[in-house]
Write a structure and sequence with these properties.
single chain; alpha/beta; TIM Barrel; 2 domains; 11% strand
Length: 411
Amino acid sequence: MDLMVVPKPVFKASKEVEGYYLSFQIGNALLSEGKAYALEARVTSPFMEFINDIGLEVLTNNKPVFMPVTNIVLAGSLENDCGVDPALVVLLLDRGITLDENAQCRLVRLKEAGFKIAFYNMPDFHAIEEFLPLADYIFAPYETSEIMPITRAVRMGRHAARVIASGVNTDAVFERTAGIGIQYFEGAFYKMLSGKHDNRVSPLQVNYLQLLNQVAQEDFDFGKFSGVVQRDPALVIQFLKMVKSGDSGREITSLRHAAAMVGQKEIKRWVTTAVASSLNQGKPSEITRISLLRAKFCENLAGLFEMGVHMENLFLMGLFSSLDVILEMPIEKALGMIVVPEKVKIALTTGENDFGEIYRFIMLYEQGDWQEVSRFALIHNLAVNDIFKAYYESLTWYGRLINTQVDSDVN
């Protein structure tokens, strides 16, 4: 069965990620194999298979994963099928779940096995009131009129459930919802440019931007590159660790010598990823994650869109797609501060070129807009399995990248 899936973050009020819930589509939503019964007929969970295969370290950085379940899967052998720590698996129950005495008994057993339980945007809150003692999380639309009765019921009953405001898509809504005491949030608010920016770029950010501009030149000077890097001790350490990871044992006498050993191509790739992470300091860590995933996803999709010769520039397009949020300024002004290919600049500002098509596609996939993703797939003759493979490989690449950085820090 063809599966498209994207992990979407759930945030705490501090904007630290609490966990990720899986948005999904089975098959092409515009064709018969994309109908709901394709999931309902499954005895075992395709999401459990996906989680077991990719691992929670890659998928969620060992944070909880909210996994959709059906009536059949709920009644099945989840305890035996789960290949990860069940304490990190939150079973996501939506309006399709039959809530009766049998379901209640089954949920009790699953809780005893270590799983957590979440209710997702239930249309009738009263239908789940007797299940509140079993709930660890409750998703509810952010509108005060809908979320406050749920919050009051949880507090009055002294239940352990954490209420998550869903559909929080702007910074203003986040501030307003947090202001009424909600502590957990789901939505795209963290990806949006807030209205509080003053367009000032810190000296450290200026250094990073200068470094990007240095390596953007076709044949950049190792000495000038080294001169910019050495202004920031953290970048020096990161760079030397990168050199060491691929070193043949030769002695490094200077930063310029290290740069010459690595070569321009590897330096360019290191700079784009390392600087993207460094620029994100002070932002939710999810911005770094999403920038890197977009970059690799764009690169992986190049062949499917018959644009394989542009892989490197498509990587840059994904990487710099959040530069407006990072620098707190309109994307046109942010891109004006670095040297980027014209096709990348057009795609991220107007979207009116072939790069813009891929950018629109990855944004639709990231949002879980499966109807539009399916439409793009039909227009461009993309197989669902090929799309999933491109995204899956982006996740595993990101996991290796992060693990390499962690291992370097430890060593």
